[in-house]
Backbone:
């Protein structure tokens, strides 16, 4: 998968909108990269898998959290506070996962568990 770090950060932190066809910032090629089973839709598990992949790519020091420096290097340092639920200055995989679940549910307008 060849997706830029800025794109990963944008998706992972919910900054570029949610991964759906309704989001103009995300092209079909990018959706295809997230849509692992190729059904033309992004399911909750596919979205979460992409969230985990994004986190792992951005966590360059592999300490299990995203620091302000890592987020800044990925192009999203100023947006950390919205995802940093406990305000400790870093984003954990759990915090990111919670934000991604909220973003997915907000984007799933028809409630079918799929983004398309």
Residues:
């Amino acid at each position: 998968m060849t997706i830029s770090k800025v794109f990963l950060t944008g998706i992972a932190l919910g900054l570029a909108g949610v991964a759906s066809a309704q989001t103009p910032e995300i092209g079909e090629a990018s959706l295809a990269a997230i849509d692992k089973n190729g059904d033309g839709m992004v399911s909750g598990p596919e979205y979460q898998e992409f969230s985990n992949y994004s986190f792992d790519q951005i966590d360059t020091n592999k300490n299990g959290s995203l620091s302000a420096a890592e987020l800044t290097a990925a192009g999203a340092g100023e947006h950390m506070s919205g995802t940093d639920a406990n305000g400790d200055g870093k984003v954990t995989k759990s915090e990111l996962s919670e934000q991604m679940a909220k973003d997915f549910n907000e984007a799933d307008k028809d409630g079918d568990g799929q983004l398309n």
About this structure: The longest strand covers residues 65-67.
